[in-house]
Amino acid sequence: MFATPTAEAAQELDARDNLAAFRQRFVIAEPDLIYLDGNSLGRLPQATAVLLDDLVRRQWGQRLIRGWNEGWIDLSARIGGKIAHLIGAQPDEVIVADSTSVNLFKLVVAALRANPKRHKLITDDLNFPSDLYILQGATKLAERPLRLHIVSSPDGVHAPMEELLAAIDDDTALVTLSHTTFKSGYLYDMTAVTQQAHRAGALVLWDLSHSVGAVPVELGKANVDLAVGCTYKHLHGGPGAPAFLYVRRDLQEKLANPISGWMGQQRMFDFGLEYDPAPGLRHFLTGTPPILSLAAIEPGVDLVLEAGMSAVRAKSVQQTEFLITLWQELLAPLGFHLNSPPNPERRGAHISLGHAEGWRINQALIQEMNVIPDFRYPDNLRLGLAPLYTSFAEIWTAVARLHAVIAEKRYEAYSVARQAVT
């Protein structure tokens, strides 16, 4: 932990930050705005704006359909190969396609079909709700009885590791979890869970949406079977950017894509009437990729690769520790409680602070204090720190403004009614 942080201490940390120069490579349209929602939508890289202008004006505007043979058709695999370097996978084990939810559905159904004599899926109540909806839907579509076993966290912050590992048995077909949980930022021990599942003969599927680009991931070393993840958070791919999926190389020919489409066909331009899946990972593609949003992923991935995950993680830990110290000194006395793990080894890149007036505080920060966090029901102010562009001075200032919202009761001017998007 830090000594009592000051504005001067924050400035000194920024002066020693070896990633500080990366901030200038993002669009900062409002220099006074403190953006702490990069774990929902990352800032726009400068290079992405340049690329999209070229993509629209020249590649699409001038080259027209010729663009498919000038790089577009290979984008899903090429960008997937780059993401593979960030998650400890081989380039031919990762491909970009569809949304996280669609990819999750594909891999869940594929895994269930590969284990037809088993009847149990395991997850926890810290998992992203959309993942649970996908699991619920998959169990209804299955051709056999399936039970979704949701293990409960003891405190809403930490994973129920002991209960989870005990629940994995010889009737378990699949274990699927968020590697970094979306509310508290709890970071799972990927290797321990994967090994336990394999001992029981089950497959494991990790959602890396809050991990990729934020924490080191080693899918190969952990011998992970399957994974999915989004690209618009710490990879800065843009709103609604396509997601990626990972299938370990030795499983690629054993698992079938349940949403078979022409992009996964072995000879797609033969237009045969019978589906013949392409070898390797390409058969997990389905429809025509959205080239504009797909191409926009690459510059952000390149920035993270250039910075290096070890440097990103080191700064992330330092910044979350700095923020927790500020919480202890300035916010805990005002009724805020820490809804994230205090141990940095079990914590991702965002900090959740709980307060009974969390929603109204969130609105006051956005409307009056020029700070954008986000809110997660029931009381979480989620502060996402993006090491490539978040400064220590911004963290200090954001906490000072948060303190003022409470001390001056500014939140009382806002309604308790929540907006559609929080």
Characterize the structure shown.
This protein is of the alpha/beta class and 422 residues long. It has 2 domains: 7-31 and 309-413, Alpha-Beta Complex (Aspartate Aminotransferase, domain 1); 50-305, 3-Layer(aba) Sandwich (Aspartate Aminotransferase, domain 2). Helix content is 36%, strand content 12%. It is built from 13 helices and 13 strands. It has helices spanning 7-15, 46-60, 75-86, 100-114, 129-141, 161-167, 190-199, 219-222, 291-295, 297-307, 309-331, 358-368, 392-407, and strands spanning 34-35, 94-96, 120-124, 147-151, 172-178, 203-207, 226-229, 244-247, 337-338, 350-354, 371-372, 374-376, 380-384. The longest helix has 23 residues, at 309-331.
Rg, Cα atoms, Å: 22 Å
CATH superfamily of the largest domain: Type I PLP-dependent aspartate aminotransferase-like (Major domain)
**Taking strands numbered 1, 2, ... along the chain, how are they ordered across the largest sheet?**
2-8-7-6-5-3-4
Which CATH first-tier class of the largest domain would you pick? Answer: Alpha Beta
Estimate percent helicity.
25-40%
Number of strands: 13
Mean pLDDT: 96
- Series of secondary-structure elements, N-terminal to C-terminal: HEHHEHEHEHEHEHEEHHHEEHEEEH
Estimated share of beta-strand residues: 5-15%
Question: Could you tell me how far the N terminus lies from the C terminus, measured between alpha carbons in angstroms?
Answer: 31 Å
Structural class by SSE content: alpha/beta
